[in-house]
Amino acid sequence: MPELAEAEFFRKRWHQAALRSPRILRIHTHDDKKLFRTAPAAALRAALIHSSYSTSAAAAKQILFRFQRPAIATAPAIESWLGIHLGMTGELSVFEPRHIPRKHDHLILYTSTHALVFSDPRMFGRIQFQSGSTAPTWWTQIAPALLSTAFSDKVVAAFLNRRARAPIKAVLLMQERFPGIGNWMADEILWRAAIHPAQPAGTLQPAEVKKLWRECRAVARLALNTIAGRGDDLPADLNIAIPDTWLFNHRWGKGGHCPKTNKPLARAEIGGRTTCWSPARQKLHA
DNA sequence: AGACATGTTGCTCA
DNA sequence: ATGAGCAACATGTC
Known about the structure:
This protein is an alpha+beta fold. The protein has 2 domains: 4-140, Alpha-Beta Barrel (N-terminal domain of MutM-like DNA repair proteins), CATH 3.20.190.10; 153-277, Helicase, Ruva Protein, domain 3 (Orthogonal Bundle). The protein has 7 helices and 10 strands. It has a 4-stranded antiparallel beta sheet with strand order 1-6-7-5, covered by helices on one side. The radius of gyration is 21 Å and the shape is elongated. The relative contact order is 0.14. The structure holds a DNA duplex.
């Protein structure tokens, strides 16, 4: 499920509930599962219990939740950084405080009013955890956001030149330069930019590079507003508000039609991932 | 039954 | 050394 905007959607969902009652009263973890490979569950529990939620943020496909616990007679103050990557099937949800852990509920933070649940059947997700006042590197080392000024057309052009022989679709999936772009966003961007997904990155014309850069930002902005909502608003469900004028609603099954040309869409594996494009408007060139 | 899945990583080979 | 391609990860659904 989760790319840039879905990560923000899920962050908001936990955030709204955690604001209601910030204090963590009880914690459930699936200690031995793969998700905790980089964050020992016992240490996480010890630091988070009786901590209170403070703030959160999403960047790329990574979500950060911060907690703090003031000093008491028997223990010093502690600041905690909880990072969640949703992998392919991860989800953050909110249930009533008596929620009973289900098979794939790997981390549950219980407050007086809610159960904050991280579930992930395929376990391609990841839980990161660090205590202390300095931000962890798994958070600070995320590439500059698509909507930041550091993500410039020049930076994109230089990156495309280094990856000159790879299909542009594969290049868009590289998180080191396109943080948060996943399979459907990459297809959406290429479709809007009218660039064939198999076009080698180094063969894009300067005008195409600029278009691609613009559409990266446009799709990021639209996806965030539509999927994660504006301001305090949080859509009731993931992806319900996506209009049929996007490729998104037509790309999944076979037999879809391009909402711009009304011609049939094509599907093939490009860059190791199932790719959907509109042959009528995305053509390979020398 | 078999194909397929909105992601990342670690390995091979050029 | 750097870049490209691909299997592997673990489970559910169509």
